Amino acid sequence: MFKKILIANRGEIAVRVARTARSMGVRTVAVFSDADAGAPHVAACDEAVRIGPAPARDSYLRQDIILSAAAATGAEAIHPGYGFLSENAEFADAVAAAGLTFIGPTAETIRAMGSKSAAKDLMEAAGVPTTPGYQGADQSLNTFAREAERIGYPVLLKATAGGGGKGMRRVDASEDLADAVASAQREGASSFGDDRLLVEKYIETARHVEVQIFGDGKGEVVHFFERDCSVQRRHQKIIEEAPAPNMPADVRARLLAAGVQAGKAVDYRGAGTVEFLYDGGENVYFMEMNTRLQVEHPVSEMITGVDLVEWQLRVAAGEPLWFSQENISEFGHAIEARIYAEKPDADFAPSIGRVAHLSFPPPDVARIDSGVRAGQEVTPYYDPMIAKVIVHAGDREAAFARLSTALEATRVAGLETNTDFLRRLAAHPAMVAGDVSTRFIDEHRDYLFPAETVSDHARAALLFALECEARAAARPAHAADGPWASLMGFRLNKPAKAVYWLDEGGEPAIARVLTDPDDPALRHAEIETQTAAALRRKGDVQSDIRTFSFRAEGTPDALSIEIDGLARKGAVAETTEGWRVFIGEASADFRRLDPLSGAGADGSAAGSLKAPMPGVVTALKVEAGARVAAGDTLIVMEAMKMEHAIKAPGAGRVTGVRFAVGDQVGDGALMVDFEPEA
Hints:
Low-confidence stretches: 597-608
Number of domains: 5
Strand content: 25-35%
CATH topology of the largest domain: D-amino Acid Aminotransferase, Chain A, domain 1
Mean pLDDT: 89
CATH superfamily of the largest domain: ATP-grasp fold, B domain
CATH architecture of the largest domain: 2-Layer Sandwich
CATH class of the largest domain: Alpha Beta
Largest sheet: 8 strands, antiparallel, barrel
């Protein structure tokens, strides 16, 4: 076994590899960019080496620097994790040339599977069923148009060197093909340095299933059963489970056999994944082979009890597999949910900022794989995943019940996340029934994206937390000082009253809280928005003032709010701009306002469009003076290796474009001046 390995990655996979290696008596070396100097994976390793600035191309993708770090620290092997250099055949060759061991498949295997087109040809030759499509060398638009017509719309464009949903576009009609090809090529070139594409038949009700394989590199390949990864956004997985639900036994047997067959075709070594589309009937089609560990590997570990990372290290060190297919068994059901810093209501655009609060359920409820800590910045440079919540139970129904419990106890504040969205997803009747496909989110949008509402329980929780904060600040330093040292305010024969300024749903509001004179545990709240106050001043007695009464107990970290006999538990976490309130399965954000600062003034010009995050402009679709319709794309920008379209909010005229292709754009930067139609 190795004495020391270098982990050429970051985030939760680097933490996971470090912990497994430590349990085996293997020392580890972390590499980190300037953005990750205080990240958990650095603390998890025995040594750490700085490898450059934040952008991945200047740090985690620098093969020379990583190899130098391995040499300087005396590492004998390099674990690539996933992403970055994990599927880079040139890097695997360079590791071997340096006299080190690459913990993964051979460079030849990576090279054979690195192109989706070449991999598809190889699998067809091996007798593995593949999706109808075109993966030829001719990359002209005319050829793509001809092949798409032959295959039949809708079709799916895919970057041949791609993965993780990058460089992938669905095309429903011929008139949309040219823009989709250009966009997929840009994203492919940016993410993988290769703009080549293939086109496949888009299977409308497909399920995404995959087989976890493991090989010794000497002809022996086994499987650790299958996973269902159908529920996706932006062609990226967010819920994975094992085994796959509602799959006929004969289809499952053919799927597993095809996965092993694919692995043997390339003499696979280590852990890998063979991905398939399942049409819901009798057919499974090969999509691609990921020559690395997958993000969702924990669900396979949970149902088999085998540590795949440990066996990656053992096989790389030359140890034989102790297991054969006959002694690999499965038990129970496992599910993984990925917590991302993103905005589900904004087409899952990544969110950046500081993680002000982060807490997870206890280990007896869920396994948590995370590479982020409270206080850490989520930057635009890397994947925005915060954590994976993994649960295991005796059957699927019990596993989903446990997932709901785990997600309710998962609390992230300081930036937008998909946690509330995942809670709704896990509770959807169709999800619980296993009626899933890659179109699940589109088919259930009304349920998964409800209109934003803030409950009175959430409002009351915040008001109670603010009261606790005020009491703590007003408490005298010495009890002997008595009530005269208190800052809470002196009053005679009047109930206690507090006033708070806050922002709810983008509108400033004033909250007044009065303690009931006959029942000190009861509080009466009144919340008046800026709009309601303006109407009241004009004499409009119908202005909307929210009133309710509540009882509260506990602390901001663990409180209970009772309104009209219904008690809900929750917590309040401070963020940079205000507070995030967690009540049961939901959360709500409130912004802190200074009543002397002109609360509610909005300095942005009407009709302006701003960048949702830092990025680079990759395409301009309009010029100043152009008339556009609602939904027309005006500018395309790239952030976190994905393209984001800035679209017209309605019909109108573009009066100015403030950036050019290639320009760096700051978070919230005004990009387009827009004049809506009257």
